Amino acid sequence: MVALSGGTFLMGSNDHYPEEAPAHRVTVDPFRIDRFPVTNAAFARFVAATGHVTVAERAPSAEDYPGADPAMLKAGSLLFQKPAHPVGLADWGRWWSFSFGADWRHPAGPGSSIDAIADHPVVHVAHADAEAYARWAGKRLPTEAEWEFAARGGLDGVEYAWGDELTPGGRHMANIWQGEFPHENQAEDGFEGTSPVGSFPPNGHGLYDMIGNVWEWTADYYAPRHQADAAKACCIPRNPRGARAEQSYDPEIPSIRIPRRVIKGGSHLCAPNYCQRYRPAARHPETIDTSTSHLGFRCAA
What is the CA radius of gyration of the chain? Predict the structure, then answer.
């Protein structure tokens, strides 16, 4: 882990997606955070020690999902599948599918394995799985404010974790998508899917993969906007937390009352033409029962 001294920084952004606004001052106390995302090898040690069975490895209960198609109540996870041709970007179902048998051991679906990718970030982990690992390791998940403070690497108010240029001097600084998402990945950064942790330069705090590779769970429930700056400097929020669980439900799906947590950092699927969330300020909601092929985590303490 890397020990950070904490401090006051400008959290959020007024220049991109509405959920990142308003930019506001926040103070965090000293904390520690993992230098890398949790890898397949590390998660395997956890499972071997505890016998933990992930959410993706358990068949959903009909009682928890009233009205669900019984044929879909099987163990599995969301899997990205690249279309063979250009498709409209309004329907994410054109490139995401629920794959029976996809889980952390089988990241590309049944028949795949982690044998050759032990040093890649673990994926197909729901929020409860990340929390269980953190407890076993004597740690916890970072708050959204801690995560963003860490990702900025001491550079306050810049676009990326390394400055204001996406590819300074033509150098790729993170594992993201090059080309037209979702059908054309030119893989100019050397990777089409996940990459071994530490494959790209660290930020100013010595932290790797804070941007790109995989999204990362945080401890905070999601709110659609940040709180505005305090009127007085003496009232800058200290160690802020997100919304309450019941405030995080998706208002567009009122029948589904599943809390959502904040995920941060973007992933190898974030592209200039679709999801420009490869920035410290970027944030996104994810229901706590969801696992995907591009979502992992790291721990704090």
Answer: 19
Instruction: Find, among 51, 35, 29, the residue nearest to 1 by Cα.
Output: 35
C-alpha dihedral sign at 98, 101, 104, 106? negative
Q: Which residue type, as a one-letter code, is found at position 99?
A: S
Task: Calculate mean pLDDT across residues 174-179.
Answer: 98
Give residue 261's identity as a one-letter amino acid code: R
Q: Does residue 139 register a pLDDT over 90?
A: yes
Alpha carbon distance 119, 199 (integer Å): 10
- In sequence order, what are the residues at sequence separation of 6 or more whose Cβ sits closer than 8 angstroms to the Cβ of residue 158? 152, 164
Per-residue pLDDT of 39-63, as tens digits, reads 999 999 999 999 999 999 999 888 8
Q: Which residues of 99-111 are buried (b: 16+ CB within 10 A; e: fewer)?
A: bebbbbbbbbbee
